[in-house]
Amino acid sequence: MRLEPPFRADQVGSLLRPPELREARAKAKRGELPAAALAEIEDRCIREAVAKQEAIGLRAVTDGEFRRDWWHLDFLAGFDGIGVKASTALKFQGVDEIPPTPTVTGRIRATRPNMIGHFAFLKSVATKTAKFTIPSPSMAHLRGGTNGIPKDLYPDTTEYWADLGAAYRATIAQLAAAGCTYLQLDDTTFSYLADDKMQALCRSNGDDPGKLHRTYADAINLALAGRPPGMTVTLHTCRGNFQSTWVAEKPYEAAIVESMFSTAADAYFMEFDSARAGSFDVLRLLPRGKKVVLGLVTTKVGSLESKDELKRRIDEAAKVVPLEHLCLSPQCGFASTHHGNLLSFDEQWRKLERVVEVAREVWG
Fold it and tell me: Which DSSP letter does residue 218 get?
């Protein structure tokens, strides 16, 4: 088994919120629970989740994103100059609720710690590798696009990307100082941009969807420039994950994947749990020395994948990328938002156990 991340058996990050935690966070929003009391409950739930992850054999453990409502918005709103507003765009399949969207409210700066305390607590209770997840810088731009960047704040969009990159670099340096050696950037764009609906949204936002994948790859590289030594950085991409639904339908597109593979990430978590992803052929573009974590176990439904089927698909991928450059994980988190996906806690843990079991049998 691999001694450094990504591990042969890995995970994307978010976990279903325990009922106690959901109730406590709802009370806190209504002003019925003090912040200190909420933090105490969050701490306890995270301790229990970390212990469970370690008990089933995962070597990378997360805090389940238990202190967040949204996988991306809570982090992005931690920067000066980024707020959150209601949205009418980017509807998920079969779900009426539409997630809010980031909005530019001022010059983007990192003037205060952004989730550094979240990571520090995770590291303090983990005996395995503490993995921390944050949204990719492209997630600050995708839904509002260039038209969403006020011209009085950023007359030249290169200044916008420069400020956003600097804010990321400052935060990544703080995470490294806190002891983070395994960081994941979550990014839907490299899966979204092949989709017709997404392309139409990009055009309405004043962007050329045929060029955005290169823009986003450059933004990631700017964020990772001079990254701290000893930190493994992975990038996760999927077609959306909100109450067991998705946005994008189209398979991976070679030109877009090529841009994704040009980023400074060490490995790529890629969704391959359904026909929406297409074949493994795009993996032929993987640069030498990098790895792919195959997202073969779905987090959208509770039915458990068979070991034989997972092994068959790993063998299929290994015809394109050598087996030693592959790992296994679920295709996404189990609760990218506070709502969670439509499966039970037992089903969640069985799926993570299955990832560990198959990885041990495949890689030893």
Answer: H
Structure tokens at 93: 């399949």
pTM: 0.95
Q: Do residues 256 and 194 touch, judged by C-beta distance below 8 A? A: yes
Structure tokens, 280: 């493994």
CA angle 262, 230, 132 (to 5 degrees): 75
117: number of Cβ within 10 Å? 12
The DSSP string of 313-334 is HHHHHTTTS-GGGEEEEESS-S
Kindly give the confidence (pLDDT) of every residue in the chain, 364 residues in length, as a single tens digit, with 9 standing for 90 and above: 567 999 999 999 999 999 999 999 999 999 999 999 999 999 999 999 999 999 999 999 999 999 999 989 999 999 999 999 886 666 556 656 677 899 999 999 999 999 999 999 999 999 999 999 999 999 999 989 999 999 999 999 999 999 999 999 999 999 999 999 999 999 999 999 999 988 999 999 999 999 999 999 999 999 999 999 999 999 999 988 777 776 778 899 999 999 999 999 999 999 999 888 899 999 999 999 999 999 999 999 999 999 999 999 999 999 999 999 999 999 999 998 888 889 999 999 999 999 999 999 999 9
Q: Count how many Cα atoms sit within 13 Å of the Cα of residue 181 in the half-sphere of its side chain.
A: 13
Of 316, 341, 349, 311, which is closest to residue 328 (Cα–Cα)?
311
Please tell me what DSSP assigns to residue 126: -
> Dmax of the chain from CA atoms?
58
In the chain, what are the domains? 19-363 (3.20.20.210)
Task: Quote the tokens at residue 112.
Answer: 């205060």
CA–CA distance, 253 with 1 (Å, rounded to integer): 31
Which among 293, 73, 102 has a CA at the least distance from the CA of 182? 293
Query: Token digits for 191?
Result: 């899966």
Q: What's the rounded Cα separation, in Å, for the pair 173 and 170?
A: 5
CA distances from 309 to 277, 305, 359 (A): 17, 7, 13
d(CA 49, CA 54): 9
Task: Read off the amino acid at residue 235.
Answer: L
Sign of the Cα pseudo-torsion (294, 295, 296, 297, in order):
positive
